[in-house]
Design goal:
331 residues; alpha+beta; Phosphorylase Kinase, domain 1; Aminoglycoside 3'-phosphotransferase, Chain: A, domain 2; 2 domains; five-stranded antiparallel beta sheet; 10 strands; 42% helix; 17% strand; globular
């Protein structure tokens, strides 16, 4: 069904701002095959508001992949906000009356999300030394949050994730020696299971809004949220692919392991062994390598003609270089 987004946003302004409210901004910021994000503002009798609208433009299939519904995203953001996590405030979850399909509305947070700017722009020089510790603090606010009643999230551990990506890799028919070695190595070093917690699922530089004076402003993009090992979120932000030109700073290209772990404990979390984080970091590089490989193959085989696919596909060699270093160093 075709959705008239502009008309829906006009109706939404009235619903949120009162009769006579009018849209003053409706700019599409980004969007992929199934998701759109809009900078959205209106003025009305109840005042002016600066918001963000996140909507799905294709039917949601809960059986396809890991993504959760937008209503689930909104519920998780609201729950973690109540536990002190730095997240946008959810203003409204859309329903049929809004005419926008599956969507929700957040209060706009100002800041920067471009990873390379966080790691190198002089504007962030003053706050950069404290960002890794802040990330640890923020993660504990997420991890200590109980999954809201009525929400069913996938449960993942190291063995499950390794099996999942090896199955994807084998299905490609590819034979890449470094990836093969990484699967073998990680299979021998799967950490003992721990009590699973709520995970963001894509916690990395690029999905975090940073303020040049305050540091971490908000954690964004919750579509891959699930339940699992708290070290998984830590390992993902330490994966070299998200360091944006600063491989010497393992946490997001801006900080050190010790600060990330210390921030987590200072916020109230249990101490997590660095070796556990490095297992998930290594699995993160392997996982991203497999994802890059499948993107390239989808382009090569004609399933997807987007130029983005082969461009990302080229990065499988970067993950292989990362894995060589990680395997040499060990956990």
């Amino acid at each position: 069904m075709t959705v008239d987004v502009r008309a829906g946003l006009e109706k939404l302004a009235v619903r949120l701002g009162g009769e006579g409210a009018r849209v003053t901004e409706a700019q599409r910021l980004s969007g992929g095959a199934s998701m759109e994000t809009y900078a959205y503002s209106f003025e009305g009798p109840r005042g002016a508001e600066r918001l963000i609208v996140r909507r799905r433009n294709a039917p949601f299939d809960p059986a396809n992949g890991r993504a959760v519904s937008l209503a689930t995203e909104a519920a998780l953001i609201t729950a973690t906000e109540a536990n002190g996590a730095r997240v946008p405030h959810v203003r409204h979850v859309c329903d049929d009356r809004d005419g926008l399909g599956e969507a929700y509305v957040m209060v706009r947070v100002d800041g920067e999300t471009l990873g390379r700017k966080i790691t190198s722009d002089p504007r962030f020089d003053a706050v950069r030394p404290g960002l890794a510790r802040q990330c640890g603090e923020v993660l504990y606010g997420i991890h200590r949050t109980p999954v809201p009643e009525g929400i069913d999230l996938k449960v993942v551990d190291g063995a499950f994730e390794l099996d999942r990506y090896e199955e994807i890799y084998r299905a490609t028919g590819a034979r890449r020696p470094i990836l093969e070695l990484a699967f073998q190595y990680l299979r021998k070093h799967i950490p003992e299971p721990v009590e699973p917690v709520l995970l963001h699922g894509d916690f990395r530089n690029g999905n975090i809004m940073f303020d040049s004076e305050q540091g971490v402003a908000a954690v964004l993009d919750w579509e891959l949220a699930h339940v699992g090992d708290p070290a998984e979120d830590m390992g993902w932000i330490c994966t070299n692919s998200w360091r944006f030109g600063r491989p010497d700073r393992p946490v997001g290209g801006f900080g050190d392991y010790a600060d990330l772990l210390a921030g987590y404990v200072a916020a109230g979390g249990r101490a997590i062994d660095l070796s556990r984080v490095r297992f998930w970091q290594t699995l993160g590089s392997l996982r991203w390598g497999v994802m890059c490989l499948t993107m390239y193959l989808s382009w090569r085989d004609g399933a997807n003609k987007s130029v983005e696919r082969p461009m990302i596909g080229r990065r499988v060699s970067e993950t292989e270089a990362d894995l060589v270093v990680l395997l040499e160093e060990g956990l």
